[in-house]
Design goal:
The protein is an alpha/beta fold. It has helices spanning 20-31, 43-53, 70-84, 109-136, 159-173, 178-182, 211-217, 224-236, 268-294, and strands at 11-15, 35-40, 60-64, 89-92, 140-145, 184-191, 244-248, 251-254. The chain folds into two domains: 4-258, 3-Layer(aba) Sandwich (Rossmann fold), CATH 3.40.50; 261-296. The chain starts with 10 loop residues before the first strand and ends with a helix. This is NAD(P)-binding protein.
Length: 296
Amino acid sequence: MTNDNKLQGKVAVLTGASRGIGKEVADALVSKGCKVVIGDILDKDGESVIASYNAEGNRAVYLHTDVTKYSDNVALFKLAEKEFGGVDIVVLNAGIIGGANNLFGDFDDERDSKMMDINVTSVIKGTKVATLALAKRGGGVIVNTASIAGLFANIPHVAPYTASKHAVVGYTRSLDLLKVVCGVRCNAVCPYWVETKLLHNLHRDTQDIDPIEKLVANSPRTKMETVVEAFMLAIEDETRVGQTLVALPDGIQVHERPQSYPSCKVPDEFIQTFIQESIVDYKNQLAVALERYESM
C-alpha cells in the first residue's frame, strides 16, 4: 500500500451500503477522496447517507437497486459513469441472513430461493456488469462480502446462509484470470460476527428463542474497524488478487486456498496452454460484451 491519496478521485460503486458494513466501507472510501455510488433498496437510509456525503460537495449519488436484476445492476453502473465518468472500485455487499434457520420450515419456494438469489446470484450478476464497467477504465477491483460462514460449516441453523457464502468465496476465487484479461482484481472479505442490524435478523418466525441466538450472543465480536480495514486492504493493495481476507476478533488473516489432491494433478505444460488459450478466448469475448454493454 502507498499513501492515503491513492484513492483520491476514484469512483466506487457499492451495493447494500445504506447501513451496516457497506456504509462503513463507503465512509472510509469517501474519507480518502472517492466518489461513491450506492445501490440499495433501503431508500430512506441510502438517501440520508448520500446527503451527508454531499454536504461538502458533489461526492455521491444513490439509486434504488434490486441487485437480483440485471437491469438494476446496469442502471447503477451507468449512473456512476454518467455522474462521475466511470468506475474504479466495486463492493458487492448486499446480503441477507433472515430466514436461514428453516430446515423444518414450510416448503416455501420463494423464501428458500430468496437467500441464494440475493447472496449469490446477485454477486454473479453484479460481477458480470462490474467487470465491463471496470474494463472500460483499464481495470479496477471488485470486493465481495462473504462471511466466516463461507469457510467453515458445522451447524444446521444457518445452513442456507453458509451455503451462499461458500458460493461467494468459491466464485471469487474462480476469477483470478480477469486480472490478466482486463485488469480486474477480485477479492472477498469474510467477517466473523460483527454488530450490525443483519445480525439481529437471525431470529426465526416463532416466539421461541432460537439456540443460534444464544450462541451468537455469547460469541466474540469482530470490531467494525477491523472489517473496514480488511476491505481497504483488498481495495488498495494491488498485489492482492483472488484473496480471501478474514476479519477476526483478533485481527485480519488471509485464508489460504485448499490444495488439490495429488491424484488430480494435470501436467504443467497443459495447464499453461489452457491458461494462454483461455486468455485469448476471454479477451475476444470481452470485446463483444463491451460492445453490447455500450449499446444499453
